[in-house]
Amino acid sequence: MNKPGEEPTDRLDQPNDHLAVTPPKKWAAGVPAVVHALEYSLQQTSPLRTGVDLLTMNQVDGIDCPGCAWADPSPGHRHRNEYCENGAKHINDEATTRRVTADFFRTHSVSELSRQSDMWLNHQGRLTEPMVKRPESDHYEPISWSDAFGLLAAELNSLDSPDQAVFYTSGRASNEAAFVLQLFARAFGTNNLPDCSNMCHESSGFALHETLGTGKGTVSLHDLHHADLIFLVGQNPGTNHPRQLSALEQAKLNGARIIAVNTLPEAGLLRFKNPQKARGVIGRGVRIADRFLHIRAGGDLALFQALNLLLLQAEDARPGQVLDHDFIRTHTSGFEEFAAHARGLSWDDVLAATGLTRARIEQVRDDVLRSERVVVCWAMGVTQHKHGVATIREIVNFLMLRGNLGRAGTGACPVRGHSNVQGDRTMGIWEQMPDSFLDALQREFGFDPPRAHGLDSVNSIKAMREGRVAFFLALAGNFVRAAPDSAVTEAALRTCRLTAHISTKLNRSHTVCGRTALILPTLGRTEQDVQAGGEQFVTVENSMSEVHTSRGRLKPASPLLLSEVAILCRLARRTLDGKAGIPWERFEADYGTIRDRISRIVPGLHDFNRRVARPGGIQLPNPVNEGVFPTAVGKALFTRNTWQPPHLPDGHLLLQTLRSHDQWNTVPYTPNDRYRGIHGSRRVVLVNPDDLKELGLTGGQHVDLVGVWSDAAERRADDFEVVPYPTSRGCAAAYYPETQVLVPLDSVADISNQPTSKGVVVRLEPTGASPS
Ligand SMILES: Nc1nc2c(c(=O)[nH]1)N[C@H]1C(S)=C(S)[C@@H](COP(=O)(O)OP(=O)(O)OC[C@H]3O[C@@H](n4cnc5c(=O)[nH]c(N)nc54)[C@H](O)[C@@H]3O)O[C@H]1N2
Ligand SMILES: Nc1nc2c(c(=O)[nH]1)N[C@H]1C(S)=C(S)[C@@H](COP(=O)(O)OP(=O)(O)OC[C@H]3O[C@@H](n4cnc5c(=O)[nH]c(N)nc54)[C@H](O)[C@@H]3O)O[C@H]1N2
Ligand SMILES: [Mo]
Predict the structure, then answer these.
(1) Number of domains in the chain
(2) Measuring CA to CA, how many Å separate 728 from each of 183, 264, 688, 704?
(3) Is residue 17, in this structure, part of any structural domain at all?
(4) DSSP-assigned letter for residue 257
(5) Per-range mean pLDDT, top range of 21-25, 77-81, 362-366
(6) Looking at ligand 2, which atom is closest to the CA of residue 475?
(7) Contact call for residues 69 and 420 (beta carbons, < 8 A)
């Protein structure tokens, strides 16, 4: 029996009421995209707010789109409308005119809210005043800001150790807010700074850092435009990075070939109609992928190993003509060991893991041999697998063999998710920041930051479960829905003495409470931010390491909102009570004073205030592009990677949990996924028709998804409708976060500890067939 307020999460959405399935689309963006964006926008907000937002979005001195982290073209090369359909949806979801007031919480108890779907909670609108849920109550009630900070400070100061506190950050938070949060956490005494990146590109960070000495991508928009071969591996740009399609279109016009590697034939990989150009509006658009490799889930490591073997063999046949010996000799270490290891590869294993033919992989080798400038882009289809780190290391091997690093038109391109997820890391939001950063903090502020590594997202949940964490504060995000294993995660959060969320909109994390819970409502990026020192702007860093300003224009959703920076500075002041000698009050009044401090701590951001004011902002240097590889040995490392195929018992499928076209991470906007032809329901599971035949199932049938994991605990997401879909054999797909309940907390990528959200072993049980 669940206690009130502890309803399980797997049945929050109305099951399959109105599912309609149409054939998947073969192209992305174009006119319908713009129409759909406006449709959603006008349901949320007024034509005036929509217009103000969209016209300033991604313009120099405007708002940075709160959607993905894709880079803007340089000033002077931007369209009048430099946004995409989905960016418009995200921004208007924030600019909504709907409001969640104290009355709302009087009407709806926490238990009642915990039975509502993610979509319903989001649709209630913007949070408007600070609220508290007291220990014996089932309702949130208003609390003054001052009392809220008092409560938080008292709780923090009563902990036995600072390490009983956890501070989570989601990647929409600005650089300034992130810097203040990590400074506060470290001055308080803990490195417990988990973030959404732990569940997103952590595998990329570890692999790139180890092999290249820097955790960031090496590619600029210019490189992408001038590459002659681009790989898109495990990403769905038509939905998740629509502005990347413009860059790919440009690359194609310059003569590039594109190879898409995916378990699904995503619309955005096939053809693009650019809504910003007449050609896109009326024509057939541009074909994106010249080659589509319909790979099995988790097969990318084997694919790149096979390509590397084929390149070594091509070099054997034509010595001195295939590999870039100069690059390998000058800049790398470990080539001989790598080559010996690569030569031991078994083709049987490769073909089984990838589901591809050898001839198909050889065609790709030929594409590579014809190319001089190669870029590899990747996202969650690579990072969220057990072998995510090894796969990216192998991609680095692949790039290095032909010197495709550090030259114009080449490089490694992890395509980041949240608009400032990369900046938050630059600002020190990481449980494992290196000593160089901590030393700089110590020099600047004169306190001794803790040195022991803190807790990441998965380990925070484990520590809560073991009673080692009592306090949880989140700067943005929806931790309870972003984290795996919903039942385990929710039970863990409920053991906390206090949970608090700095949020713009209501979500499930507000309904899964510690003994005491606080909602701290904040300004969104679209809104004007006026402090004692005048109107403020914030800064963000995109996927290509460009740091620029973002300035909101709209009137705040409520006069009671505080900015993220103000909330964190006041909390720090109240908790530390002058102990660390940090000028929190000045920071709050004038964010420029925060940037002055950042400029003395973060390499590459010297003279931050002056340089970021220039149109286009600051390009952070990437050592790789200067021929420097700051690894332990001062060279880029070739690595030897091994793998085991996932154990897939008979009658089971490997499930990936992914995004629809109409959602922002944990927040579905509508139940539709237009490009995949799914309308009216998110409780669907996409399965290859041949697998359905083998499993004795048919399209339209209702099934429970049953997770299979070594702990033998039953993880069940019930009542999903089967949709026959051209996913690769043995693989299924269903939406996150509804399937979060199936991802075991212990199922993580090797080394990065990132949940394996794209590799969940499940069986499909006809609904109602189970005895339970
Ligand atoms: N509209 C919108 N935009 C977003 C987001 C959003 O929710 N909505 N989220 C943002 C965030 S935080 C992120 S991290 C990014 C995520 O961007 P993506 O990584 O594109 O997001 P996913 O929906 O998780 O899609 C993963 C893709 O990988 C493929 N895939 C799955 N497994 C494999 C595999 O084993 N091999 C290969 N080759 N392919 C595989 C899937 O079929 C799918 O196309 O998007 C960002 N942008
Ligand atoms: N199964 C599965 N799990 C996954 C993934 C997956 O593909 N499959 N993807 C993972 C990935 S890539 C990511 S990045 C995480 C995402 O995890 P999170 O970043 O934690 O989740 P979001 O859904 O982006 O958070 C949405 C909430 O952020 C708040 N918010 C929005 N804008 C602002 C703002 O400007 N300021 C503040 N303070 N709050 C704001 C709103 O209250 C909103 O409800 O999920 C991960 N989890
Ligand atoms: Mo992400």
Answers:
(1) 3
(2) 46, 7, 7, 21
(3) no
(4) E
(5) 362-366
(6) 38
(7) yes
Range of the domain at 712: 648-766
pLDDT surpasses 80 at 31: no
Q: How many residues does the chain have?
A: 772
Q: Give residue 162 CA to ligand 1 midpoint distance, Å.
A: 36
- Confirm if 723 and 687 have CB atoms less than 8 A apart: yes
Is the peptide bond between 755 and the residue preceding it cis, with omega within 30 degrees of 0? no
Q: Is residue 491 part of a domain?
A: yes
Q: How far is the CA of 170 from the centre of ligand 2 (A)?
A: 6
Q: What is the DSSP letter of 196?
A: G
Minimum-distance ligand 2 atom for the alpha carbon of 479: 20
In the reported structure, the alpha carbon of residue 665 is separated from the centroid of ligand 3 by a whole-number distance in angstroms of 8
Q: With CA atoms as reference, report the closest residue to 402 among 440, 376, 373, 359.
A: 373
Residues 179 and 241 in one domain: no
Q: What is the CATH number of the domain that holds 551?
A: 3.40.50.740
Mutation choice for ligand 2 from 485, 503, 527, 748, CB with most ligand atoms inside 8 A: 503
- Atom 22 in ligand 1: residue holding the nearest Cα: 658
Q: Looking at residue 296, what DSSP letter applies?
A: P
Distance CA 156, CA 151 (A): 9
Same structural domain, 554 and 601: yes
**H/E stretch holding 500:** strand 498-503
Taking Cα atoms as reference points, which of 117, 124, 169, 97 lies closest to residue 556?
A: 97
- Asked if 410 and 481 sit in the same domain, the reply is no
For residue 206, give the CATH number of its domain. Answer: 3.40.228.10
Residues 404 and 487 in one domain: no
| Ligand 1 atom 35 nearest Cα | 297
Q: Are 44 and 92 in contact (CB under 8 A)?
A: yes
300, 227: one domain: yes
What does DSSP assign to residue 626?
A: G
Domain shared by 314 and 228, yes or no: yes
Tell how far the Cα of 496 is from the centroid of ligand 2, in angstroms: 21
pLDDT digits (tens, 9 = 90+) for 115-164: 999 999 999 999 999 999 999 999 999 999 999 999 999 999 999 999 99
Calculate how far, in angstroms, residue 664's C-alpha sits from the geometric centre of ligand 3: 10
